[in-house]
Amino acid sequence: MAIFKQLDVRVTSGKIRNKKGEFSNEVDCMIVEGEGEPIPYTDKFIYDISQVIAVLEIKKNLYKDELVDSYNKMHRIYKISDPDITNMKGMRDAFRHIMKKELPTYEELEIR
């Protein structure tokens, strides 16, 4: 209700596709611009990565397995994204402020 209708911004769920035709995992919640391609027999949509403004991963509990799953989903989105579009500076800054240390690289993560 708070989003201006003239902007054609929507809150939805579904998948993200890049220019090469690669897909993300299913996204719980994303803020997008414009119309997406409906996924048959669902209320979800496929959006081109250039239409995606923000991606939210929703978890009821913050258990290790769920956090690892969330990280892997977000990492997949990062991997299919265009390096020119993706700006990790904001995420790195937020992590640094909250955790008081630098954001680890994917290779540095120890997943048990």
Structural class: alpha+beta
H/E topology pattern: EEEEEHH
Question: If you compute it from the alpha carbons, what radius of gyration comes out, rounded to the nearest whole angstrom?
Answer: 15 Å
Quick one: biggest sheet? 5 strands, mixed
What general outline do the C-alpha atoms trace? globular
Q: Count structural domains.
A: 1
Q: So what's the oligomer here?
A: single chain
- Number-wise, the strands total 5
Low-confidence stretches: none
Quote the beta fraction: 15-25%
The number of distinct helices, counting runs of at least 4 residues, comes to 2
Query: What is the mean predicted local confidence, pLDDT?
Result: 84
Domain DUF6602: 8-78
Protein name: DUF6602 domain-containing protein
Topology:
Layout: E1 9-17, E2 27-33, E3 37-38, E4 45-48, E5 52-56, H1 64-80, H2 89-99
Pfam families: DUF6602 (PF20247)
Protein name: DUF6602 domain-containing protein
InterPro entries: DUF6602
Describe the structure.
The chain is α+β, with helices and mostly antiparallel strands and 112 residues long. It has one domain (5-108). Helices cover 25% and strands 24% of the residues. It is built from two helices and five strands; from the N terminus they run βββββαα. It has helices at 64-80, 89-99; strands at 9-17, 27-33, 37-38, 45-48, 52-56. Strands 3-4-1-2-5 form a five-stranded mixed beta sheet.
